[in-house]
Amino acid sequence: MTKIVVVGDPFVPATSLVKAAQQLDLSGTVEIKAFDWCLQQSREEFRQTIKIIEHEGPNDFELPEGLIAALKDATILLVHIAPVSKEMLQAARKLQLIGTCRGGLEHIDLAEWEKRPEVQLLHVIRNAEPVADFTIGLMYSVVRNIAYSYKEVQAGNWPQHFPNDQYKTSLSTMTVGLIGLGYIGKLVVKKLNGLGIPVIAYDVFADEEELKNAGYQLQLKDIETIFQQADIISLHLRVVPETINLIDQQLLRLMKPSAYLINTARPDILNKSDFYEILAQKRIAGAGIDVVWEEPIPKDDPLLNLDNLIITSHIAGDTIDAIERSPELLVQELNRYLKQGKSELLICHKNA
Q1: Residue 262 belongs to what domain range?
Q2: 41 and 179 in one domain?
Q3: 69 in a domain, yes or no?
Q4: Do residues 117 and 257 share a domain?
Q5: Whole-number Cα distances in Å, 285 to 162, 176, 177, 279, 280
Q6: Which residues pair with 8 in a beta bridge?
Q7: Cα separation of 12 and 140, whole Å?
Q8: Span 40-57, mean pLDDT?
Q9: How many Å apart are CA 312 and CA 236, to the nearest integer?
């Protein structure tokens, strides 16, 4: 018998995850046990809870009554952003697979999960396509001054000159460097390939031959070379201890004066003070970010004084169908994994 435990939340309720679980291609008897977490919270209140879990991790949250007991003989666990805590993982001794329909993994105690090599972790980024679209849009907006110009026109001005005047060109003449080739990064590659824009990339887990065989047109290089050569650098990394503040002054100072930095991933992979300094000193042409270190950004944040930075309000993945479709995307990828025994959305254990 296969026992599936699902834990819903105000964005993706348990009923949606149960429907997904019922569509899994499993043989034999299947039992599904459903729980909801924080369902009493409004969506706005729950956004604040998400911020807490993103910054403090999945432990120390009150869990639904009966969840720990249900996990003791569970083989599959499905969640959106409900915590997968140390206590839960320690209780789930028969667990084989965790499926989550969310890009970030802050809601999972990865340190505890690493101790369980028999437990596979598969995540579907519910808004991957919207984020990839937005990333390309932010590149155009920054390089071609779309947002800068709009802001000035709204203020009653008619700008013809911009901070990047000496570097203005079209994207077709530029090379884009991607830092991270997860699901979103690969979608960005596909879109850039369609536009005929050269791509170079850095990812410690990527294999260039495999990527090219899969249809991705790019060259893999080390991270220093990416920062030295790329005209636009776009960040697509997850936040793990190894990536926090990875993009610091040492790398930023390698960038061309004509280069731009784009971040639609997570703020913590970028050292804020070094990022501010590189822009304030006009060492690069500009930047565009959809993520900031504190939301909403404080009115006195020095980033707001920069004339070569575009900040959007964490809306890259915000489309009307992204969250609602996430359990559907999850079950599609889980069935692919169950049938083929592999998935590019499977998270690898460090020592695997």
Answers
A1: 128-311
A2: no
A3: yes
A4: no
A5: 10, 14, 15, 8, 11
A6: 36
A7: 33
A8: 91
A9: 17
Claim to verify: residue 158 and residue 276 sit in the same structural domain:
yes
Instruction: Classify residue 253 as exposed, middle or buried by CB count within 10 Å of its CB (0-12, 13-18, 19+).
Output: middle
Q: What is the dihedral of CA 54, 57, 63, 64, to 10 degrees?
A: 30
Instruction: Output the CA torsion sign for 6, 39, 127, 68.
Output: negative
Percent of the chain with pLDDT over 70: 99
Name, in order, each residue with C-beta under 8 angstroms of 181's C-beta and a sequence gap of 6 or more: 189, 201, 203, 205, 206, 211, 236
Please calculate the CA angle 195-199-202 and round it to the nearest 5 degrees: 150
pTM of the model: 0.84
* 267 in a structural domain: yes
> Looking at the 3D structure of the chain, how many domains does it have?
2
Which pLDDT belongs to residue 166? Answer: 96
Note whether 8 and 39 are within 8 A (CB): yes
Region 222-228 average pLDDT: 98
* CATH number assigned to the domain comprising residue 113: 3.40.50.720
CA pair distance 112, 140, nearest whole angstrom = 41
**Average pLDDT over the chain, rounded to an integer:** 95
User: What is the full DSSP assignment across 49-105?
Assistant: HHHHHHHH-STTPPPPTTHHHHHTT-SEEEESSS-B-HHHHHH-TT--EEEE--S--
Whether residues 177 and 199 fall in one domain? yes
Q: Are residues 61 and 171 located together in one domain of the fold?
A: no
Residue 352 has pLDDT above 70, yes or no: no
Structure tokens, 126: 């519910």
Q: pLDDT tens digits for 279-306? A: 999 999 999 999 999 989 999 999 999 9
CA dihedral 272, 273, 279, 284 (to 10 degrees): -80
Write the pLDDT tens digit of every residue in 302-319: 999 999 999 999 999 888
**Is 138 found in the same domain as 74?**
no
Is 153 found in the same domain as 287?
Answer: yes
| C-alpha angle 163-281-185 in degrees, rounded to nearest 5 | 75
Tokens at 5, concatenated: 């435990």
Secondary structure element (H or E) that encloses residue 201, with its range:
strand 199-202
CA quadruple 288, 293, 297, 303: dihedral sign: negative
Q: Cα(132)–Cα(236) distance, rounded to whole angstroms?
A: 10
Can you tell me the distance from the alpha carbon of 84 to that of 100, in angstroms, rounded to the nearest whole number?
A: 10
